[in-house]
Amino acid sequence: MSGKISPAFEPFLAGSGPNDKCDAIVIYRTPSEESPPPMSELRETERRLEYVRERAAAQRAVEQEVFGSYQRAGAQRARGRRDLAYASIGASSLPVATVEITRSTLPSLARQPDVLAIMPNQKIHLIQPRRVNFAELSKQEYRNGLTWGLQQLDIPRLWERTQGQGVNVAVLDTGVYADHPALDGRVKEFVVIDPLGRRISARPAFDGSIHGTHVCGTIAGGQTEEGVAIGIAPRVNLLVAGVLLGDATLATLVEGIAWAVETGADIINMSLGFTYYEPHFTQVFELLLQHYGVLPVVAIGNENHGNSSSPGNAYNAFSVGAVESTGAGKVDVAFFSSGASLVFPGREPGVVTKPDVVAPGAQIYSCVPPDKQPDRTYIYAYLDGSSMAAPHVAGAAALLMAAVPNAPATEVMEALKITAKHPAGSARRPDNRWGYGLIQPVEALKILG
What we know:
Elements: H1 9-13, E1 22-28, H2 45-77, E2 86-88, E3 96-101, H3 106-110, E4 115-120, E5 125-126, E6 131-133, H4 139-144, H5 148-152, H6 155-159, E7 168-173, E8 187-193, E9 199-200, H7 211-220, E10 237-242, H8 250-263, E11 267-270, E12 272-273, H9 282-292, E13 295-299, E14 318-327, E15 330-333, E16 340-343, E17 351-354, E18 357-360, E19 364-372, E20 377-384, H10 386-403, H11 409-418, H12 441-448
Parallel strand pairs: 7-10, 7-11, 8-10, 11-13, 13-14, 14-18
Antiparallel strand pairs: 1-3, 1-4, 2-3, 5-12, 6-20, 8-9, 14-15, 16-17, 19-20
Helix pairs in contact: 7-10, 10-12, 11-12
């Protein structure tokens, strides 16, 4: 098969007839730009949204030409069929579309000169938390007035400069219970992306699980009734998309990413994945980082050492593993936290080592939708998982972006990597347990200015 075609198509199409239709995700070539705006300029939300609209208009014309040509070629190969439909992802802010293919027309699509990559529309899933515990706040957290994760990352020192004002963090997850008192006024936008990729407005905002609310609380939550701070960046704007409701697919995820871009996200937090390595998803992250200045933060998975989840194992994702507290201010990588080194002989990059960094991800106290248990109804809980570590990194990145508004997303990511603390020092960085190490946001801020 062509190098444009994902290797995942082989099992995906196994057993299908030559003219049986299925959906593919296609990335196409973007129009060349004479003078794209500098990344520092795109940190201003209105200017970025204006740029998103400009690119979308240009990409729509390319899309119509590419897939119109494919439909004509496909009709000749697929016994005269002319019903191979395609649909834009979002408002064409990303040069990505869903396209119907058959085994016989897939090569025709790959031969289109402006087609860059073709992926099967596989299912995606939540990176499930390893444990849910409705225990009371620990004595130390109660005494300190903040969770152990915030304490470990020295977040109060960053609050002396900013609490994340003006930064937009998109959370693609199970939704959010926006009426939680710890999230009061923080959820600025909410949408449901259904399994068909449709955007559905829903009020009030809701969570199909407890996961999305917990993640949002770690990024931007306020204080509990006991006065304990749970959120890294309590003044950021949350843009939440429920993409993991029902039988979610890759198209659902990409639609959520496009919605985040079109709504003005600076950072996208994703605690989700799919079960195979997808080399072409790197192009989606390339679009986010290089064209729009949006930082993708992705949980690496909870499948233990020697494993990793896509898209967190894409070389240009900012992937996050989990550490747990071992007492006396010390931490170690949690046993469940995934990590692996992927080797690609003869290709660039030849080796991909994930995660990139680690952050607190075990016994993380945050808000959840009201959960009625035999003894009482709980609105806070402890959860374990790399899904709990990723929002610590997304929140830290938001603080850095708020403190240094002109810093591009790539520089924020690099600053968090190079200042991270690895127990073996810099000689072993990155490895597939710690990555570059435990993030040190205060040190990263010193580099960024």
